[in-house]
Automatic annotation (TrEMBL):
<dbReference type="InterPro" id="IPR051797">
    <property type="entry name" value="TrmB-like"/>
</dbReference>
<dbReference type="InterPro" id="IPR002831">
    <property type="entry name" value="Tscrpt_reg_TrmB_N"/>
</dbReference>
<dbReference type="Pfam" id="PF01978">
    <property type="entry name" value="TrmB"/>
</dbReference>
<dbReference type="InterPro" id="IPR036390">
    <property type="entry name" value="WH_DNA-bd_sf"/>
</dbReference>
<protein>
    <submittedName>
        <fullName>Transcriptional regulator</fullName>
    </submittedName>
</protein>
<dbReference type="InterPro" id="IPR011991">
    <property type="entry name" value="ArsR-like_HTH"/>
</dbReference>
<dbReference type="InterPro" id="IPR036388">
    <property type="entry name" value="WH-like_DNA-bd_sf"/>
</dbReference>
<feature type="domain" description="Transcription regulator TrmB N-terminal">
    <location>
        <begin position="8"/>
        <end position="74"/>
    </location>
</feature>
<keyword id="KW-0238">DNA-binding</keyword>
<dbReference type="GO" id="GO:0003677">
    <property type="term" value="F:DNA binding"/>
</dbReference>
Length: 272
């Protein structure tokens, strides 16, 4: 019930209108008094909402005293709403003012629904190339959109984490202020048509955060990072035993040269 009411509100109906429509659909037909009594709300509010719904054509008012109301059947209702939504979308698309160029900016997204919704919309508009650096669990959430992109002829370049094969995981840099960093998440990044990118983290508690931008600097950084990951992966596959003999497993010795310890741990040593 709550999901149905939520979707009706998403389509532009008020909470009162949504509840009335669901109640009428369940009863078949009812008077305004009966609806108000069932919902536990004032009759004046119910009659005002019924009048709006009747004028818009979603509800029919029968003859008699008291008047009895009924909502369109689901097929008719969906068809009417769809037609009006499409008409409004076409009008907005054609009449919305188109301003000058907008400077690239960064914006943040929070919540799995917002992040996945943004990704789905962008993946569906990809024309030439999608570069994906993601864990398999996250890739599975977008499987349909990625498959559809390939069917359209879009080139997909993949880097997977979280499996037996894939890019070499990079170590996390410790925070400078001594505060503990969240380590229970999985990073992901997407670059679409070399002009749009998303970089984010999905945590084990279900929360998701991401940064989205069309700024060419971050796009280039993510593409370079992807290239370096894949080059290192191929080198490890071809020369794994020799690299491990010289540098240690997963290049640990090399990492330690560049990934500094927390600067607050040994201030005197760092000062030197």
């Amino acid at each position: 019930m709550e999901q149905l009411l939520l979707h009706l509100r998403n389509l532009g109906f008020t909470e009162m209108e949504s509840k009335i429509m669901v109640e009428l659909a369940a009863k078949g037909q009812a008077s305004g008094y009966e609806v108000a009594k069932q919902l536990g709300v004032s009759r004046s509010n119910v009659y005002a909402a019924l009048q709006r719904l009747t004028q818009q054509g979603y509800v029919r008012c029968g003859e008699g005293e008291p008047a009895r109301y009924s909502v369109l059947n689901p097929d008719e209702l969906a068809l009417m709403i769809s037609g009006r939504v499409q008409a409004s979308l076409h009008f907005v698309e054609s009449e919305m003012p188109r301003g000058g160029p907008v400077s690239p900016s960064f914006y943040n997204l929070e919540g799995e629904r917002n992040v996945l919704g943004t990704l789905v919309r962008q993946l569906n508009t990809a024309k030439r190339e999608i570069v994906v650096d993601v864990w398999r669990e996250e890739a599975s959430l977008l499987r349909n959109e990625l498959e559809q992109a390939e069917l359209r002829g879009v080139k997909l370049l993949w880097a997977f984490d979280g499996g037996n094969a894939g890019p070499i995981p990079y170590p996390a840099w410790p925070p400078l202020n001594g505060s503990a960093a969240r380590k229970d998440g999985r990073k992901f990044s997407f670059v679409i048509d070399r002009s749009w990118c998303m970089l984010g983290m999905r945590y084990e508690d279900g929360s998701v955060q991401a940064v989205v931008t069309e700024h060419p600097v971050l796009v280039e950084l993510l593409l370079n990072h992807f290239t370096q990951e894949m080059v290192l992966f191929e080198l490890e596959q071809d020369m794994g035993p020799e690299l491990e003999r010289r540098y240690g497993e997963r290049y640990g010795n090399i990492y330690r040269k560049y990934v500094m310890h927390d600067l607050d741990e040994n201030p005197e040593e760092n000062a030197e």
